Model the fold of this input.
Amino acid sequence: MLEIIDLTRSAQYIGAGMAIGFGAIGAAMGEGYAAGMANESLCYRAENSGNVVRNMLVGQAIAESAAIFALIVSLILVFSAPSEQFVLFAWIYISAGLAMGLSAIGSGIGAGLAAGNACQGIVRQPAHSSAIIRTMLIGSALCQDPAIFGMVIAILLLFLDFSTVPLYPGWAAMLGAGLSIGLAAIGPGIGCGLAAREAASGVARNPETNTNTNRMMLVGISIAQSTAIYGFVISLLLLFTGHQENLALTASLGLLGAGLASGFGGIGPGIGEGITAAGALRWIARSSGNTGLLTRSMLVGMAVAESTGIYALIVALLLILVL
Amino acid sequence: MDINGADFIRALALLGAGLAMGLGAIGPGVGEGFAAGKACEAIGRKPEEAGLLTRTMLVGQAVSESTGIYALVVALLLLFVV
Done:
């Protein structure tokens, strides 16, 4: 006969596996891209290898941080004592694992993209390596934001006391909160990386415009992250809206649907806005006189790409607050 | 949990609405962003054609948006009509 502690214990182990399993995908891909770009560019000019390898390692270390967050959450899940009284905690452990693991995917890939093109840029313009490294550090640090949102939700799930929340529909609210930030963080992480990658290349191509390039990169990254913030807000709403006990399946699946809507809905706009920012950044380095025109076009394009993310946010809010 | 037929159908309609809007938002987001990125590159290459390029970008994005709007319509139907 299964006791409650058997359920919560096994949920901790599933959550731990998903946290580090999903969480390892992005960092590994991003670091591999950085190493590949470093090798590819070093074969053209090998005398600069010390500088490039150092930059590659710094970039990879930043990309690794998302996976380290996932490792920490995973270890907390393995070694903390499971709840003995409430089945709801089984869902909380699974959700914490999903929030951390899924949200680390995009950040790892994104930071690696920035590091790779910075290596290439240092080989092309060794004299300007400090400006290139600065852009890479800003860009890849900002790529970690979505993973940090995921970690905040995972930590809230693990350390707050949810024992007064009823199991129905609490299980769906908890699972939805994890899926919302986990999935919504994937796209913005990758999108920020696409923008930061082009910014690093742009500074290498035309170091004189690096102020403009950095400013544009910050604008692009902050807009690309908006859908991760929508996912974060929906997660917080799902965690902290006072849920009344309701045995009907409708109440539960409505909350789960809200998490899935804002979660999946955040992926596309995040990646798309990153591609837009990358296109604008590529040409700001080449024709800096057109910065104003390019900024305007980028913002118009991003606003249209954002629209589906906003539809998803509205559907999620309707599901939580109206129905 | 007590589940009757009407509750079960309504519950899965709500879940379906979330999935429809969530998954339906992925494609337009990526596609419109790609169109806008290419438009920015083209404007950088030929700034004097910015008006034509912006117009073309918006027309292309409007077409790409259509599937996102289908998803929104289906989600709202599932929420409020079915």
